Amino acid sequence: MPTDTQPSSDTQSTTSDSILVADGVTRKFGGLTAVDVEHFEIQRGKITALIGPNGAGKTTFFNLLTGFDEPDSGEWTFNGQSLHGVPPYKVARKGMVRTFQLTKVLSRLKVIENMRLGATGQRGEKFLPSLFRGLWSAQEKENTDRAMDLLARFKLDAKADDFAGSLSGGQRKLLEMARALMVDPELIMLDEPMAGVNPALKQSLLGHVKSLRDEGRTVLFVEHDMDMVRDISDWVVVMAQGKIVAEGPPDTVMANQAVIDAYLGAHHDAALTHETEEEILAAAEAELEAEAEAEENS
Amino acid sequence: MEWSSVLSGAIEQGIGPSAIIYCLAAIGLNIHFGYTGLLNFGQAAFMMVGGYALGSLIQTWGWPLFPSLIVGLLMAVVLALVLGVPTLRLRADYLAIATIAAAEAIRQVLGSAALNDEFGGQDGRYGFVDGMRSLNFIPSGGVHFLGLDFRSYDFFIMIVGWTLALLLCGFVYLLMRSPWGRVLKSIREDEDAVRSLGKNVYSYKMQALVLGGVIGALAGIMSGLATSNVAPSDFATDTTFFTYTVLLIGGAARVFGPVAGALIFWFFISGLDLFFDKMTSGANPTIPESIMTDDQASLMRLIFLGLILMLIMIYRPQGIFGDRRELAIDAH
């Protein structure tokens, strides 16, 4: 598929400041090649959107990068360190934290406990020290303060003592994002943060994503709604059928014919022109005539 | 036999050695199932390795009490590792399958005729509690109060057992209010979420399996000490399921759930037993033999126990200490 914005184009070369670089990553499910990405990069301190129609392999690619799934081939590095074969929890500790398309809040834990879980390097999470509150209570207090600040930022502070399972779908998205921030990641990867969220909350979520970049984090997010992407992303990568078909700044990418085809399918929903309409009509008439003739002959 | 003897008999059993054994086993299972969400269907195996290590080391190999006891607990650690290493990376159901199979396999091996000299076949090991008896400080006449009668050694076992159970409850309380306990509870809710936040889920599941298993072994050891006998029939699959019953009656993921569950379970099961025994015994029984013979009466307790369990599940599914609001929340 020839396009004017090929993957790894000159606008984004390997020499620039990439936080994550992936090469030749493939994942097959039986005969289906779900992901076949030749080259993929994320620029530090930018918002990168990974878009594509349903079934394009975005989430699978996401799982591969974060260690939740193992690729059949390929190499990828985060801050220059290879992540091949690194288990998910170590990927997170390196500073690359993800959220999930179907939110995974811990329902029967309180919102604040969900948040505290995210904090790293907790002394109280070791078996023996956990028995002695004195060893971890100061750290727990710091974590709680930080958690409350984040909850306030995401307007969930009033819900701190509710069970996470009692939150609405949109609030769960917010909680998941806030919880990921408790890990203090360099790169935060959001899998469809806007899915199933009402329009008003979408705007506020978009604002939150921007604010992540403004505080110096790198953001990668998966989305299949192109309009959502246009406003906030600095760089857009388009996937279709497992491959990256185009990438570039949002406006360029949106105008790309390959992207439109990938999105809508080459003949899905396309408005019928006058000529094609006539062709179809003529064909139908010819068919009817042929049938009528066949009946007369019998 | 007076009617009040039914009540006092039920209370004696309700707080007696059997209740302690199941209480301890359920405290261990609570760490597995209640807090971490590990489906361990082989708690009987952990009890068995503990009890058999104690019994066979003392009777067969002539070890003293305390080293045998320590080895019994270590055997539970070994069993937990053997079961956990291959299964804890997999989905939850694999642990369930592995534990139920392992429990039965271990039971068959320890009860086999080929190992008769070491483990005593179907009779198991017995008469190995001299070391424990020598520690008994209760007067030899036994203890009598409020119409309850306990033999001296039984009362000693009860004091040791309930002290142990309360200490373990305190221990579980300290663990579960800590960040360590929070990780376990989070794994129960959604382990992928916990992974995504940088926690080594496998390690925590293993720690939980070992800890709950060691407490299970302690239950097996208490069982051996209380009855002066360990036999394969003590550790059949229904032991595990009675333990689950105890845990669910009391309320899973509650510190005192296993204690309340064990008290209630043994009060009812022995109370029903005594009640139907009384109704069908004597020359002119209250329930005529044409309706029920005394052989059939001994099965009535299981029927009524099933009924009680159903009623609890319908009207109080969260158990005695559970929080209904918590249960109402959909897991996802």
Distance between the termini of chain A: 51 Å
The CATH architecture of chain B would be Orthogonal Bundle
- The DSSP helix count of chain B reads 15
Structural class of chain B: mainly alpha
The helix/strand order of chain B is HHHHHHEHEEHHHHEHHHH
Describe this structure as you would to a colleague.
The complex is a heterodimer of chains A (298) and B (332). Chain A is α/β, with parallel strands linked by helices and 298 residues long. Chain A has helices at 58-65, 88-93, 111-118, 127-130, 133-153, 169-182, 199-214, 226-232, 250-255, 257-264, 274-297; strands spanning 18-29, 32-43, 47-51, 73-78, 81-82, 96-98, 187-191, 218-223, 235-240, 243-248. In chain A, the strands form 2 sheets. In chain A, strands 6-7-8-3-9-10 form a 6-stranded mixed sheet, sandwiched between helices. In chain A, a hairpin with a 2-residue loop joins strand 4 (73-78) and strand 5. In chain A, helix 3 packs parallel to helix 6. The longest helix of chain A is centred in the C-terminal third of the chain and has 24 residues, at 274-297. Chain A is elongated and about 100 Å long. Chain A starts with 17 loop residues before the first strand and ends with a helix. With 332 residues, chain B is mainly alpha-helical. Chain B has a single domain, classed as ABC transporter involved in vitamin B12 uptake, BtuC (Orthogonal Bundle), CATH 1.10.3470. In chain B, 70% of the residues lie in helices and 3% in strands. Chain B has 15 helices and 4 strands. In chain B, the strands form 2 sheets. A two-stranded antiparallel ribbon of chain B has the order 1-4. In chain B, strands 2-3 form a two-stranded antiparallel ribbon. In chain B, helix 2 packs across helix 13 (257-280) and helix 8 runs antiparallel to helix 11 (201-227). The radius of gyration of chain B is 21 Å and the shape is globular. Chain B starts with a helix and ends with a helix. Chains A and B meet through helix 2, helix 3, helix 5 and helix 6 of A and helix 8, helix 9 and helix 10 of B.
